[in-house]
């Protein structure tokens, strides 16, 4: 989770396996399970900072015993500083985002997990009123259904970031909250692991969000979001959404079709209307079902009607693509189909089919893109660069129709 305005917001660890804070839909979160945990290195500045921090922590209600236990095995993590300073700030198109968020692999695993935890999710839904498939979708985006929860020691990560100082006050607040979690006995220092930025567990709660929303659904006396059992994490996510204004029975939104001549001035999240008003304007649900009250946005090809529950998902992560991703993945988990309308060409004039063909042809030539989902990520750009270099062309790493024609 990340935070704005003091409200916890979730990251998206599993979208691309990246570990950067969210913003504008950029993915965040924990390491893949196979990635080794970063190792601390000696740093006199960090040592001095920790000594000063210990006094401040005591003034904020953390016992000396808790502080001593937490820092006994902690250390300075330069890898965390590197990741914080080298975040790639970009926004994926909604098409790319949904291709990742609701990939066939993620949908397939999501349906398996939904079946496996059906009774648990149903009990959580009964208590908090947040539909089971929505809770499961958050789980899927945050940690690929628990498979990418992160393995970075949280006390080391947060103290490193607080010491580094770029967002020192924020990370010191998170560090104090993490110590209070340890003090409450929900987890021990060795078990408190997560992303490089301190997001933890199956649904990537930052420590302040944990203190505000985490629940002990299993009744074992601990709010355990770290264990293999996702029950407390899923219930905590439902509690978060409930307290943020979730309305039971209301869809997050839906894909819609617009009539010919529809006034584009009616689009936008500030232009809400009732279901009957949209119906009267010729708007129809793409699936053929009933409309709901809300606003309509353009998605680069498809159109989406977004309800108040969409705004509640934004409280979890204030990125429009993320909230649409949660909603769409939740629909796919229930067995519904992909987005029906076609997305238009990208800035390079390429359709998804073009990008997929580019990836397939690069791989066939020996420049492996490691998949052909049509999403131009780091691996595809590296393959393009290598191919360009092999031909003596200027190395750009950028997809283009000219490059595709050359590959053909």
What proportion strand? Answer: 5-15%
Number of helices: 17
User: How many extended strands?
Assistant: 8
Quote the distance from N terminus to C terminus. 44 Å
Low-confidence stretches: 2-33
Structural class: alpha+beta
Describe the oligomeric state of these chains in a short phrase.
single chain
Order of helices and strands: EEHHHHHHHEHHEHHEHEEEHHHHH
Q: How many discrete structural domains?
A: 3
pLDDT average, as an integer?
91
* Percent range of helical residues: 40-55%
| Gyration radius, in Å | 23 Å
Profile the largest sheet.
Answer: 4 strands, antiparallel
Describe this structure in words.
With 408 residues, this protein is of the alpha+beta class. The chain has three domains: 1-247, no CATH class; 253-333, no CATH class; 352-407, no CATH class. Helix content is 46%, strand content 6%. It is built from 17 helices and eight strands. A four-stranded antiparallel sheet has the order 6-5-8-7. Strands 1-2 form a two-stranded antiparallel ribbon. Strands 3-4 form a two-stranded antiparallel ribbon. The protein is globular and about 70 Å long. 50% of the residues are buried.
Briefly summarize what is shown.
With 408 residues, the protein is of the alpha+beta class.
């Amino acid at each position: 989770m990340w935070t704005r305005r003091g409200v916890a917001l979730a990251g998206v660890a599993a979208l691309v396996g990246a570990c950067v804070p969210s913003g504008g839909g950029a993915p965040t979160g924990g390491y893949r399970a196979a990635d080794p945990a970063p190792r601390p290195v000696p740093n006199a500045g960090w040592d001095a900072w920790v000594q000063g921090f210990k006094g401040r922590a005591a003034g904020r209600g953390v016992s000396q015993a808790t502080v001593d236990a937490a820092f006994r095995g902690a250390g300075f993590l330069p890898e965390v500083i590197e990741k914080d300073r080298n975040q790639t700030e970009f926004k994926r198109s909604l098409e790319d985002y949904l291709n990742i968020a609701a990939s066939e692999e993620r949908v397939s695993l999501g349906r398996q997990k939904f079946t496996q935890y059906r009774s648990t999710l149903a009990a959580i839904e009964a208590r908090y009123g947040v539909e089971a498939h929505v809770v499961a979708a958050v789980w899927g985006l945050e940690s690929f259904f628990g498979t990418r929860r992160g393995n970075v020691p949280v006390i080391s990560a947060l103290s490193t970031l607080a010491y580094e100082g770029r967002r020192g006050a924020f990370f010191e607040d998170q560090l104090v909250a993490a110590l209070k979690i340890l003090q409450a006995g929900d987890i021990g220092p060795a078990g408190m692991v997560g992303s490089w930025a301190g997001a933890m567990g199956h649904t990537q709660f930052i420590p302040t969000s944990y203190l505000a929303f985490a629940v002990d659904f299993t009744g074992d006396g601990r709010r355990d979001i770290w264990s293999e059992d996702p029950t407390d994490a899923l219930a905590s996510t439902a509690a978060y959404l409930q307290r943020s204004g979730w309305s039971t029975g209301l869809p997050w939104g839906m894909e819609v079709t617009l009539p010919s001549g529809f006034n584009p001035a009616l689009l936008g999240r500030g232009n809400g209307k009732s279901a009957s008003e949209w119906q009267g304007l010729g708007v129809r649900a793409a699936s053929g079902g009933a409309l709901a009250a809300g606003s309509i946005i353009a998605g680069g090809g498809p159109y989406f009607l977004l309800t108040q529950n969409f705004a509640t998902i934004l409280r979890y992560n204030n990125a429009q693509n993320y909230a649409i991703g949660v909603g769409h993945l939740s629909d796919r988990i229930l067995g519904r189909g992909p987005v029906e309308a076609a997305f238009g060409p990208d800035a390079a004039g390429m359709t998804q089919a073009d990008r997929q063909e580019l990836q397939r042809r690069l791989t066939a030539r020996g420049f492996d893109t490691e998949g052909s989902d049509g999403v131009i990520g780091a691996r595809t750009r590296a393959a393009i660069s290598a191919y360009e270099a092999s031909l003596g062309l200027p190395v750009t790493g950028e997809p283009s129709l000219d490059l595709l024609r050359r590959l053909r």
